[in-house]
């Protein structure tokens, strides 16, 4: 029998140990790009693809709401379908700015999980079997402690916005809409009980120019995010992926706040060049427990809300 010269994991230095990474994501095209980009440098053991299936109970609930308030139900359905198409179109447009347009997961092992099962005991058991060091989350539903506390090191979220000033959904759009260009970017943070409120490891600020759109900024942010994640994972065992606590409450934007007229008004403003995006260079700000001064300075610059 040949003798193996491979050193057991317990004797490897922190930098030599492989990080066991599991991903939870809705696997939108840009999220799939992000997952593949991370996997090129840090192998991913498994991806859980979150799906949004229909059930008889959800259909009956919708019918009951329609019978109680038919006009409001139709308006809400139209609003939801409209923004679903906006999201799909933005994802397709963003992929045109990325190096490769393949939106599949390639050969990374993956299984689907219904969104209603993500916080269930059954899914928790599945996740424990994989024994992850890190659970990486992108475009995923809110997780409960029974899930995000399973990984040995951390559950990390890729938030497409600068937290805490812009937490919640579609925060790249809201920063553009508000003309708040200093808060256009992406945040890599630990998940806790709040919505995008966990300790921050890194902020990514994409380069800006006057021609940028929500789609182009989504693409730039995902490219930055892949570098941020890979750099953080390089030193995961040494740093423990601790991050720095967020300061300030900021604002949490919810899906129900999206309105036709806000989208239309912003489109008109951009169409007539009434609001030009100022140019800037890209940068990544790293917050870590051993760079307190840098962390304080970064927080003072980033958190204005």
Which features does this protein show?
305 residues, alpha/beta, Rossmann fold, 10 helices, 16% strand, disordered N terminus, disordered C terminus
Verbal overview:
The chain is α/β, with parallel strands linked by helices. It has one domain (17-302): Rossmann fold. Helices cover 39% and strands 16% of the residues. The chain contains 10 helices and 10 strands. The strands form 2 sheets. An 8-stranded mixed sheet has the order 3-2-1-4-5-7-8-10, sandwiched between helices. The protein has a two-stranded parallel sheet with strand order 6-9. β1 (21-25), α1 and β2 form a beta-alpha-beta unit. The N and C termini lie far apart (65 Å). Residues 1-15 and 290-305 have low confidence and may be disordered.
Rg over alpha carbons: 21 Å
What is the domain tally?
Answer: 1
Category by helix and strand content: alpha/beta
Overall outline? globular
Instruction: Sketch the topology as an H/E string, one letter per element.
Output: EHEHHEHEHEEHEEHHEHEH
Instruction: Look at the structure and give the CATH class.
Output: Alpha Beta
Strand content: 15-25%
Enumerate the strands of the largest sheet in spatial order, edge to edge or round the barrel.
Answer: 3-2-1-4-5-7-8-10
What is the averaged pLDDT score? Answer: 84
Number of strands: 10
Question: In CATH terms, what is the fold-level topology?
Answer: Rossmann fold
Short characterization:
The chain is of the alpha/beta class.
């Amino acid at each position: 029998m040949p003798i193996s010269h491979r050193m057991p994991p317990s004797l490897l230095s922190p930098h030599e140990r492989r990080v066991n990474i599991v991903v939870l994501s809705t696997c939108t095209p840009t999220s799939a790009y992000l997952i593949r980009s991370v996997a090129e440098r840090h192998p991913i053991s498994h991806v859980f693809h979150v799906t949004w299936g229909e059930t008889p109970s959800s259909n009956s609930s919708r019918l009951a709401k329609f019978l109680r308030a038919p006009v409001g139900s139709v308006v809400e359905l139209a609003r939801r379908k409209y923004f679903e198409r906006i999201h799909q179109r933005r994802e397709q447009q963003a992929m045109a700015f990325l190096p490769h347009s393949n939106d599949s997961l390639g050969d990374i092992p993956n299984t689907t999980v219904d969104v209603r099962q993500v916080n269930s005991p059954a899914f928790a058991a599945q996740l424990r079997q994989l024994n992850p060091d890190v659970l990486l989350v992108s475009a995923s539903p809110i997780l409960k402690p029974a899930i995000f506390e399973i990984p040995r090191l951390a559950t990390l979220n890729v938030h497409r916005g600068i937290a805490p000033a812009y937490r919640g959904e579609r925060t790249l759009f809201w920063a553009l809409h508000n003309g708040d260009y200093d808060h256009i970017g992406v945040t890599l943070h630990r998940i806790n009980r709040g919505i995008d409120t966990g300790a921050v490891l890194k902020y990514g600020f994409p380069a800006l120019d006057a021609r940028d759109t929500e789609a182009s900024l989504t693409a730039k942010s995902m490219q930055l995010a892949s570098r941020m994640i890979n750099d953080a994972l390089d030193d995961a065992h040494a740093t423990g992926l601790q991050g720095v606590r967020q300061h300030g409450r900021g604002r949490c934007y919810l899906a129900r706040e999206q309105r036709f007229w806000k989208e239309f008004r912003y489109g008109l403003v951009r169409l007539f060049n009434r609001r030009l995006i100022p140019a800037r260079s890209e940068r990544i700000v790293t917050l870590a427990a051993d760079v307190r001064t840098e962390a304080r300075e970064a927080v003072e610059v980033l958190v204005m809300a």
